[in-house]
Design goal:
Strand order of the largest sheet: 1-2
Shape: elongated
Keywords: Membrane, Transmembrane, Transmembrane helix
Distance between the termini: 80 Å
Largest sheet: 2 strands, antiparallel
Helix content: 25-40%
């Protein structure tokens, strides 16, 4: 069974095999770098209750994480996207004889997800709400506010205003600022 030059008893031409043999790592590295940059600019999410120490809020968040994990354990499911057929190109020689090269199938991507992730988040939010916390997102402080604010760490959650923002410190701590 020949379809044309270079394809005997094969549904994938030799040229295609060489071309698809390796995948570039550049897209993965770019994605990691972009995520790191975005994380520094994204609003900070936390559970908030005015006057509570940050240490207590973090302990209660951990306790609620554990409780939520007990009530909605990880339920990893593995799925696969459907395969995709790539039709072969139409090829013509210098005499005007044309034929279609064979196409090929590309396997669907295999991925996994946690079927209980959404439920676990809701259980955690309920647990924190029962303790008097509400979820908030604080914007990152603009550079002029950051440079005008003495370095520090928030130890007790302050009253929030419409002008509240957060400064993220390099060591993973943060400082909530109420701008004037």
């Amino acid at each position: 069974m020949t379809e044309g030059p270079g394809t005997v008893n094969s549904i994938v031409s030799a040229r295609r095999l060489r071309h698809s043999a390796g995948m570039s790592k550049k897209p993965i590295l770019l994605s990691i770098c972009a995520a790191a940059l975005i994380a520094g600019c994204a609003p900070m999410s936390l559970y908030y209750r005015p006057g509570v120490s940050v240490a207590r809020m973090q302990q209660e968040t951990t306790r609620c994480d554990v409780e939520a994990l007990k009530q909605a354990p990880v339920a990893t499911q593995i799925r696969q996207m459907p395969p995709t057929y790539v039709p072969g190109p139409r090829v013509c020689d210098n005499k005007g004889n044309c034929w279609n090269r064979p196409g090929y199938w590309m396997n669907g991507e295999v991925y996994s997800y946690d079927a209980n992730a959404g439920l676990r988040d809701r259980v955690k939010q309920l647990c924190m709400a029962e303790k008097g916390y509400s979820p908030v997102k604080l914007p990152v402080c603009p550079p002029e506010v950051k440079s005008a604010t003495p370095p520090g760490v928030t130890r007790v959650l302050p009253e929030l205003t419409g002008n509240s923002c957060v400064i993220r410190n390099k060591d993973g701590t943060w400082q909530i600022v109420n701008r004037s």
